[in-house]
Amino acid sequence: MAENETLECITEHERILQEIESTDTACVGPTLRSIYDDQPNAHKRFMEKLDARIRNHDREIEKMCNFHHQGFVDAITELLKVRADAEKLMGQVTDTNRRLQEAGREVMAQTEEVIRCRIQQRNMATTVEKLQLCIPVLEMYSKLKEQLESKRYYAALKTMEQLEKIYIPRVSQYRFCQIMAENLPRLREEIKEISMSDLKDFLESIRKHSDKVGETAMRQAQQHRTFNSAVAKQVSMGHYMKPVYSLNGRTHTHNGLMMDTGDEDEADEEILTAQDLVDFSPVYRCLHIYTVLGDRETFENYYRKQRKKQARLVLQPQANMHETVEGYTRYFNQIVGFFVVEDHILHATRGLVTRAFNDELWNMALSKIIAVLRTHSSYCNDPDLVLELKNLIVIFADTLQGYGFPVNRLFDLLFEVRDQYNETLLKKWALVFREIFELDNYSPIPVETEGEYKLVVSRFPFHDAEIEKQDFPKKLPMSQSVPQIYTQVKEFIYASLKFSESLHRSSTEIDDMLRKSTNLLLTRTLSSCLQNLIKKPHIGLTELVQIIINTTHLEQACRYLEEFITNITNVSPETVHTTRLYGLSTFKDARHAAEGEIYTKLNQKIDEFIQLADYEWGMAESDGRASGYLMDLINFLRSTFQVFTHLPGKVAQTACMSACKHLSTSLMQMLLDTELKQISMGAIQQFNLDVIQCELFASSEPVPGFQGDTLQLAFIDLRQLLDLFMVWDWSTYLADYGQPTSKYLRVNPATALALLEKMKDTSKKNNIFSQFRKNDRDKQKLVETVVRQLRSLVNGMSS
């Protein structure tokens, strides 16, 4: 067992020795550590083994040295022999080297110079090569600077793009290229700012030029409309067959239609467009710049926002715009100029503004325009200014319609303006009518010669066979105001017709508008003027009579006015929807008002005469003749009713009957006046004489046409009352009271009682009853009896 372990230990030591011999010394440590980690005292056996191995190697070295010692000695001997030759050779080599160094020193200097030149040449070639790459970059950058200085910003942006994408990447390693690359974004921003500044200047400039652009566009639209109107008229006359053409400044035509296109000033005027009047390059340039920079949407939004603001400013009218046509013209020119510019931008650019955007702007503007025109036209009182406003609106609408904007609401507005125009016309003609009435002498028109007669008839449709048969000089029944009124009504129709021109309306609609406006003139303006005239205090009975005659002739002339309108519009009056003139009712109403005023003034005049009455109510007996005031009143009535001969029969008869009734009533009120306390029989007799004169006047037929004693019946109440007291026929009155055949049927018991009370009192003064007491007291008792009976009748009536 012990032998086996010893044998294994020897084998292990042998392996370790081989490993130590064959491996690097750096790896010996782990191997030696394994010896100490093995069995106890193993290292001693290993040391013994190691010593034995060393002795073995020493013997082998010794054997090898002994084997090679003679050859080594021989080699040393040979080496000693060549030592002297080597020293000699060394001297020769040294000398040769010295001489070679001296000879090659100049060559070395030249070689170094060649090397230095070669290096310089190589550097120059490299520099040229690099410069050839940098020069285009610098040239492009210089070109960029020039473009910026000359404000060719769009080209500058293209140059920047080439620099960034082509040139700078080739030499990006150089510092100056990096600086260039860093500057390009800043230059782009500067270009954006400059182009935006130019755009702002353009927007500011366009505000100033919009007026001129709009004026030019509206003038061209007006010329076009005038030309079309002239062509239409010549077509209607059959003169127009083929279009006009111009050659070398000379006019040529076919079949009659001539236009002067030669050297006339009007034809020489060049047709200008918005592009001729406004430089749009800032917009195009700015649009291209922002498009290239990829910021087109920002530019579009900014442009639209600014134009909306400018639209609101343009739509703001001046406070006194309604005072002159120039104010309206300037307002329309600015609006037209604004939308003409927008229309040009729409068609000249792609997407900067859209049709929807323009339509939105126009709808906003249209609402504002209509509101402004409604407000300002309402302030206008001059029909000529309203008419010019209408013409401006038509040209304004036609102009914008030519650019594709819908204008139907503007033509609808014209109907409102037409009403305003009619109102101003009515106010103007109201002043004309008032002046005519104020200057009229309200007397028949005298005509001395045939020429004067024809002049009046040419102005007013008057035809009277009897008057035409009369010799000159003669008088026409109406006053001077009648032909003047008729002429002014026709002038009003012409003025109203002017507004209907160019409204694109049919003849039927124009005819209807003319008839309605004429109806307003007759039924409102002229009627109001007539009513005011009739109510004026200075208009007397003679004037009122003439007014009635005038309105009669004006009423008869209404049919001629209808014919006049028909001739203007060529619309038959038999058309179903044709409006009729209401002049008949107007003049009838005025005539009725004049008749009523005649009755009123006649009664007032009677009252004035009545106020002059100065009866002595206590007189013993009458003067034997009628009172002076009454005779003056009757004479006045006679002369007045003579003037009524030209009035219609019923008017004169009604006036006469009204006057007689009013006179009768006034006389009756005079007798029954509560302030009158006593009346003598003499006063009754005097009063009776006055009533007799009234009855004589009534029976003299002051106005023809009364049947029998119709007019005398106006005084029947007075007559029966006075007869009752004059005859003192109380027995008959009391006996027949209430009977249809009573002699005193119109005498009221209360009236008789009141008058009898005034005659009964004898206690205060010496009156008619004083002789009753002297002559017959029974009569006094009779009076008292009559009074009691009358009172009983009055009480019976009241119950």
From TrEMBL:
Residues 410-758 form the Exocyst complex subunit EXOC6/Sec15 C-terminal domain. The keyword Disulfide bond does not apply. It comes from the Eukaryota. One of its GO terms (biological process) is Golgi to plasma membrane transport. Keywords: Exocytosis, Transport. GO terms for cellular component: exocyst; plasma membrane. InterPro entries: EXOC6/Sec15, EXOC6/Sec15_C, EXOC6/Sec15_C_dom1, EXOC6_Sec15_N, EXOC6PINT-1/Sec15/Tip20_C_dom2. Residues 49-218 form the Exocyst complex component EXOC6/Sec15 N-terminal domain. The keyword Transport applies. PANTHER family: EXOCYST COMPLEX COMPONENT 6, SEC15. Component of the exocyst complex involved in the docking of exocytic vesicles with fusion sites on the plasma membrane. Belongs to the SEC15 family. This is Exocyst complex component.
